[in-house]
Write a structure and sequence with these properties.
The complex is a heterodimer. Chain A is α/β, with parallel strands linked by helices. Chain A has helices at about 1-20, 30-45, 60-65, 80-85, 85-90, 120-125, 145-155, 385-395, 400-415, 420-435, and strands at about 95-100, 100-105, 120, 160, 170-175, 185, 190-195, 200-210, 215-225, 230-240, 245-255, 260-265, 270-280, 285-295, 300-310, 315-325, 330-335, 345-355, 360-370, 375-385. Chain A folds into two domains: about 5-280, no CATH class; about 385-444, no CATH class. Chain B has helices at about 40-50, 70-80, 95-110, 115-130, 135-140, 150-160, 180-190, 205-210, 230-240, 240-254, and strands at about 1-10, 15-25, 30-35, 55-60, 65, 80-85, 90-95, 140, 165-170, 195-200, 215-220, 225-230. In chain B, β9 (about 165-170), α7 (about 180-190) and β10 form a beta-alpha-beta unit. The chains are: A alpha/beta, B alpha/beta.
């Protein structure tokens, strides 16, 4: 297929542009990493629906757009204030704000952090020639073409490192905004979170762009939890409904650590989220909560994989989807219990609310168990708004539309009430109570 | 207040109500009794607007307005309240939020201003006090994980908050122990007033020891076949429903 060759050529020529712009020394570790990654991408190419991992998600529309790299310090096409929702403006805590792939110091703030804590721009780190050691060690680009692409192209993101025993009360916000004028841009955010022994922190990643804009966000986040670390990772994705959002979160857990993820997907035209968690020591616990809302022609794909590699690990997973219009959802939850991972306790639940006849969900639990003393359960439900609940609310004077909104909110609230970042939770609650599909209206 | 005239209703091809006639005036308490399958809950459902029931004939007037033409929410806003036999659990919605939406929808319909958070909480506290219900109820999701008695009490609490003019109690006593029954009955009695009417649907006479009716009707095979005072309920309790059947058969032969 000539189309495929063309699109690869585009990415190769973008890669050459990047090499020229960065001027990284040939043979330096970073340059070597990029080289390997782009070569691997060349071999893998974009996935097709023949690939089991991409069966329901056709990325052909992504290959039809020729994305450019944003220029250095390319100004936002719209005023930032308009793009940042009120919850983010109200939220406390240090933050790094990135616009069109660059960190904006005037919008960022890392004052008042305890001594020894690092919250810094990856770009600034790279500019000094220092590559944070474990970068690229966990997010494997061998099988995932978009992780390969990110590894070849990343130049900005956050490096967060917490020294032993550090407890942060306020969450750290990592805000990624795509708002460029002209030809569609692509950015490859790369975040690295290193939580040392007995640390505790909350990280909030958020993604925004002006409604209607076409762009490509291809994010990779690596999270490493050392012994007894507790990390809560919240991701709020509110991209333009014309945008492409692909993101992979790779989590590595050491002994007795606890990881919680809240993945909230509201925007994006074509969305794919991968979360892979490796419970690589005894006594670890991982909780994955997810809420995705699709309307119009949005496609939202959530792939999660939890590797129970050692004994006495627990994982809890709850993903809920609300789909309206012609939106499509994909949920694929893999739980892999390795030989020897005895006393594993894994529970997975996926529930979908379909608000229209044309909305669709493909839900697939995937349990592979190679240990014999484990407890693994999974369940999936797909349904409409319950008529008996609707009638009950109406007999109390609540109008049909409001009753529907209330029940949709109730469905979402099982995930929302677990959010610990209060301004975000309150904002989402208000949004859901306002409109049944709390995403944005599509302008088609 | 409520006039039911020759009401026929069915589910699918199955005719359940076969010509119900009933008149209820403001301030009155009417009990509707009858054996299982006689159409008691269908009558309650038709009055509340449950759409599985199809009305094929007859009229229902509420304060002179055609009740059957209204959506369930309109009926509620006009002042009709159904206490469910099986209250529905709504996980994820707190009682507070639910009742606030209901109160304000009804107030809006009546041309009143919506209550703000403070006034609403004061109203809740006042009603909880009357019914001796703990404030915890407000934070809990609607009926989720409630015991049978708690669910029925929540129905009466909602009734107290929404201040309807016509209260329909659909087998509110079923499955309640005597203490829960008393609590529910006390709640209903506290709400009795000259401009409010009650339609108490029950299978047993027991509830009527606590909620004393002005009139008792026997619903049998989709019709009201006998009406009387509160003593009729006692008669049904001691003799069962069999004698009504015999009386009807006798009348048919004559």
């Amino acid at each position: 297929m000539t189309g495929v060759i063309d699109i690869k050529e585009t990415y190769f020529s973008r890669f050459s542009e990047l090499e020229r712009a960065l001027g990284e020394r040939e043979g330096s570790p970073l340059h070597r990493l990029r080289q390997l990654a782009i070569e691997r991408f060349a071999e893998l190419g974009f996935p097709t629906t023949d690939d089991e991992e991409w069966r329901f998600t056709n990325v052909a529309p992504l290959a039809q757009v020729s994305f450019r790299l944003p220029a250095a310090n390319e100004p936002p096409a719209v005023e930032l204030k308009q793009l940042l929702p009120s919850w983010l403006q109200a939220a406390a805590g240090p933050r790094l704000v990135f616009v069109n792939g660059r960190m904006i110091p005037t919008w960022s703030n890392t004052d008042g952090l305890p001594p020894g804590v690092v919250v810094t721009s990856l770009g600034q780190r790279l500019a000094t020639g220092a590559v944070p050691a474990p970068l690229g060690r966990y997010a494997d680009f061998d099988v995932h073409p978009f992780v390969a692409l990110n590894t070849a192209f990343f130049r900005e993101g956050a490096v967060v490192a917490l020294p032993k025993g550090c407890v942060l009360t306020d969450p750290i916000h990592l805000v990624w905004i795509s708002a460029a004028a002209g030809e569609p841009i692509m950015t490859h955010p790369r975040h690295l979170i290193l939580a040392g022994v007995q640390t505790q922190a909350r990280i909030v990643e958020s993604y925004f762009g002006p409604e209607g804009a076409v762009y490509f966000t291809n994010a990779v986040t690596e999270v490493v939890l050392e012994e007894s670390a507790i990390v809560e990772h919240t991701k709020v994705q509110q991209e333009s409904t014309e945008a492409f959002h692909l993101a992979a979160v790779q989590v590595h857990q050491d002994r007795d650590s606890r990881f919680t993820s809240h993945a909230i997907a509201l925007g994006g035209g074509l969305v794919r989220n991968d979360i892979n968690v490796i419970l690589d020591a005894p006594g670890t616990e991982a909780t994955l909560n997810g809420l995705y809302v699709g309307t119009g022609r949005q496609l939202i794909d959530n792939h999660t994989r939890i590797d129970h590699a050692r004994p006495h690990g627990a994982s809890h997973e709850l993903y809920k989807g609300i789909l309206d219009g012609q939106a499509r959802g994909v949920f694929n939850g893999k739980i892999y219990v390795h030989p020897g991972a005895q006393k594993t306790d894994a529970k997975q639940t996926n529930k979908t609310l379909l608000l229209s006849d044309e909305a669709q969900i493909n839900s697939k639990p995937q349990l592979e168990i190679y240990a014999d003393d484990v407890k693994c359960t999974h369940g999936a439900t797909i349904g409409q708004v319950a008529e008996d609940m609707l009638f009950y609310l109406r007999t109390r004077g609540i109008g049909q539309d409001e009753a529907r909104r209330l029940l949709t909110f109730a469905f979402a609230n099982e995930v929302l009430e677990r959010l610990s970042v209060e301004p975000l939770r309150a904002w989402l609650e208000a949004r859901f109570l306002q409109s049944p599909t709390a995403g944005r209206e599509t302008h088609r | 207040m409520l006039t039911i005239f020759n009401l026929h209703a069915r589910v699918g091809d199955n005719e359940i109500l076969k010509g119900v006639n009933l008149k209820v005036r403001a301030g009155e308490v009417h009990a509707i009794m009858g054996p299982n399958g006689s159409g008691k809950s269908t009558l309650a459902g038709v009055l509340a607007g449950r759409d599985v029931f199809e009305v094929t004939e007859g009229d229902v007037l509420f304060d002179g307005k055609n009740l059957l033409e209204m959506d369930p929410e309109e009926r509620a806003r006009e002042g009709v309240f159904l206490a469910f036999q099986y209250p529905v659990e709504i996980p994820g919605v707190s009682n507070t939020y639910f009742l606030k939406a209901a109160v304000n929808a009804i107030r809006k319909h009546r041309g009143l201003e919506e209550l703000d958070a403070m006034d609403f909480m004061n109203l809740m506290k006042e009603k909880l006090k009357i019914l001796h219900i703990d404030e915890d109820l407000l934070k809990r999701p609607v009926n989720e994980g409630f015991s049978g008695g708690e669910k029925k009490r929540n129905e009466i609490f909602q009734m107290a908050v929404l201040e309807p003019r016509l209260c329909i109690l659909d087998e509110t006593d079923s499955g309640l122990d005597i203490d829960a029954l008393r609590t529910v009955a006390d709640g209903v009695n506290a709400l009795r007033s000259p401009d409010r009417a009650f339609l108490v649907i029950t299978h047993y006479q027991r509830l009527l020891n606590y909620i004393v009716p002005d009139k008792v009707h026997v619903l049998f095979d989709g019709r009201i076949v006998k009406s009387g005072g509160k003593e009729l309920a006692l008669e049904l309790e001691s003799k069962g429903y069999g004698w009504i059947e015999e009386e009807l058969a006798h009348a048919a032969r004559a």
